[in-house]
Amino acid sequence: MLYDSIMQTFAPHRSPVTADPRELARRRLIVALDVPDAGAASVLLDRLDDTCAWFKVGLELFVASGPAVLEPLMRRGHHVFLDLKLHDIPNTVAGAVRSAAGLGVDLLTVHAAGGPAMLAAARDALAGVARPPELLAVTVLTSMDAGQVNSIGIDRSPAEQVELLAKMGWAAGIRGFVCSPQEVVALRALTGPEGTLVIPGIRPAGGAAGDQKRVATPAEALRAGASYLVVGRPITQAADPAKAAEAILEEMAAAL
Ligand code: C5P
């Protein structure tokens, strides 16, 4: 029952009510399909089909294969996160959001750094859409540490910048955010249960960080208040992706 209420609270995209922690974990794990083309995505999908329920299509795959790459995911009943990280003038972003909404995806990203007018235009573009995706504002990329943030002229820590952007986004009507595991506690305090917090930069204990700088384990991120965890290379580059996903799901279920 406790799991149900956590799930209902933090994750709006769910199927029938369940108290099974393993199933609840499955509904909160998003696999990033960062692969070069539809063929590679299909191979991974075949291996992960039974284990995972959510897949993220990002720029690499979408630019190579276009919207058609979403169709097999939806046909197999999976949830789709279209991670386009839109960042342009308000009119252009509004148009792109409308186009993406027509694709039937569940989650869609824009960059919070586009500012309040751009975020409001993105939100308004979904008014009247029958089944709109939930808009997520990306705060500070998890690959950026303090040095990277300072080098683009921002005289604040990543944590301070994330909070500033999230407050600005919240005021512009955005209810979902992408941040690193290290800022989840602060953003959960800001949004309360209403916010959807989607967290990349997840690394199982001892896993290679790669280009990610602000990382945490699946259990740490969930305990901090994450709604969804996004995991790419620790699953997709594993010798056995399904086994790697299973291990992460077990850790998540235990943390729930
Ligand atoms: O392979 P890895 O687990 O690092 O993949 C993380 C995924 O999350 C990538 O697809 C990346 O584009 C995405 N992401 C991120 N940081 C953000 C927003 C999205 O790493 N702030």
Give a structural overview:
- There is one protein chain.
- This protein has 256 residues and is α/β, with parallel strands linked by helices.
- It has one domain (2-255): Aldolase class I (TIM Barrel), CATH 3.20.20.70.
- The protein contains 13 helices and 8 strands.
- The protein has helices spanning 2-10, 21-26, 38-48, 59-65, 71-75, 90-101, 116-124, 146-151, 158-171, 184-191, 218-224, 233-236, 241-255, and strands at 29-32, 54-58, 79-86, 107-111, 134-138, 176-178, 196-199, 228-231.
- An 8-stranded parallel barrel has the order 1-2-3-4-5-6-7-8, surrounded by 6 helices.
- Strand 7, helix 11 (218-224) and strand 8 form a beta-alpha-beta unit.
- Helix 6 packs parallel to helix 7 (116-124), helix 9 runs parallel beside helix 10 and helix 11 packs parallel to helix 13 (241-255).
- It is globular, with a radius of gyration of 17 Å.
- The N and C termini lie close together (12 Å).
- Residues 32, 34, 58, 83, 138, 141-142, 178, 200-201, 210, 212, 230-233 line the site of cytidine-5'-monophosphate.
